[in-house]
Amino acid sequence: MQLLQTPAEYYDHIRRYSTAVILSSVFGVRGAHFQEPKVKRLYHVQDQFTAIMETGATPPVDVFPVLKSLPDFLSPWRKWALSIRKEQRTLYFELLQDVKDRIEHGI
After folding, report:
1. Helices 10-22 and 37-53 sit at what angle, rounded to 10 degrees?
2. How far is CA 106 from CA 25, 30, 97, 101, 102, in A?
3. Which 3 state secondary structure label does DSSP give 105?
4. Residues whose CB is less than 8 angstroms from the CB of residue 98 and which lie 6 or more positions away in sequence, other chains included
5. Is 32 strand, coil or helix?
6. I need a surface site. Which of 29, 73, 82, 99 has the fewest CB within 10 A?
7. Dmax of the chain from CA atoms?
8. Which of 52, 41, 20 is nearest to 88 (CA)?
9. What is the pLDDT of residue 74?
10. What is the pLDDT of residues 27-77, one digit of tens each?
C-alpha cells in the first residue's frame, strides 16, 4: 500500500519491507514504516557495519597482525570498530530483552 501511495520512495519501501521481515521473524516486532525507530536504528547499525567492512576502510589487520599492536592514536579504525560494536550490541540486546519481556508476560 505504501508503495502505491508514495511510489517515488520505492527504495525505502523495499528496504523497510526486508527489515520488517527480519524484525518480525527474529524478534516478533513489526516495522510497518521506514521512519519507525527500530527500523531506522537497524539500518543505521547495518550502514555503519557495511562502511567499516568496505575494502580500504580499515587496514588489513588480519593479514598484518602487527597492526593490532599499534597505539590508539595510530589506529583510529579501532575506535570506529568499537563504537559500531557497542551500537550493534545495544540494539540487538534491547531487541532480545523485548522478546524476553514479552515471553515473561505471556504476550
Report:
1. 100
2. 18, 18, 14, 9, 6
3. coil
4. 27, 29
5. coil
6. 73
7. 54
8. 41
9. 92
10. 888 777 777 888 888 889 989 999 999 988 999 888 999 998 999 999 999
DSSP 35-90: TSHHHHHHHHHHHHHHHHHSTTSS--TTT-GGGGGS-GGG-HHHHHHHHHHHHHHH
CA-wise closest residue to 32 among 20, 14, 42, 21 = 20
Nearest Cα to Cα of residue 52 among 85, 13, 24 = 85
> What residue has cell string 522478546?
99
CB-based contact 99:28 (threshold 8 Å) = yes
Distance CA 1, CA 30 (A): 16
Cell numbers for 100, please give them.
524476553
Is the Cβ–Cβ distance between 48 and 90 less than 8 Å? Answer: no
